[in-house]
Amino acid sequence: SSGINAEYGWGYRVRLADSFSAAFTECSYKEGYDLTIGTSDTGDCVDNLNIRHFKHVIVFLGGLTGLEPAIEADETLKETEPRTLFDYYVNVCPNQGSRTIRTEEALVIALSSLRKPIADNGMNMR
Questions:
Q1: pLDDT, tens only, 39-48
Q2: Which residues touch 78 (CB under 8 Å, ≥6 apart)?
Q3: Which tens digit of pLDDT belongs to each residue from 15-27?
Q4: Reduced to 3 DSSP states, what percent helix, strand and coil does the chain have, rounded to the nearest 5?
Q5: Residues in CB range of 33: below 8 A, 6 or more apart
Q6: Is-contact 37 90, C-beta < 8 A?
Q7: How many Å is the Cα radius of gyration of the chain?
Q8: Which end of the chain is more exposed for a tag (fewer CB within 10 A), N or C?
Q9: Rounded Cα gap, residues 17 and 53, in angstroms
């Protein structure tokens, strides 16, 4: 037996939302997300991340210009400072050496960087 539950599988889900705030409010979990992580080159270094226990996490990745344009475009948000919108606001690629990281690269980097803190404090990923 491989240990994989075919009903759920392993990995992540990508969901399209009509606005930044809708990503929070249109959660498919009845109790919502109890942990939110935003990623940015201006965030705190992921190497020092020590997250609290959680059941459902959502991770936000910005586009080439970061999370700020999506936040600013959302007319329902009163707060526009990204750091205050998340439980944790982290830089998943410290000392990246380039101005931008493509989203498809950022996804792999973020999930790799966050794997251990998430596995240690959330759902069983074994």
A1: 988 889 999 8
A2: none
A3: 788 899 999 888 8
A4: 30, 15, 55
A5: 24, 27, 56, 57, 58
A6: yes
A7: 15
A8: N
A9: 26
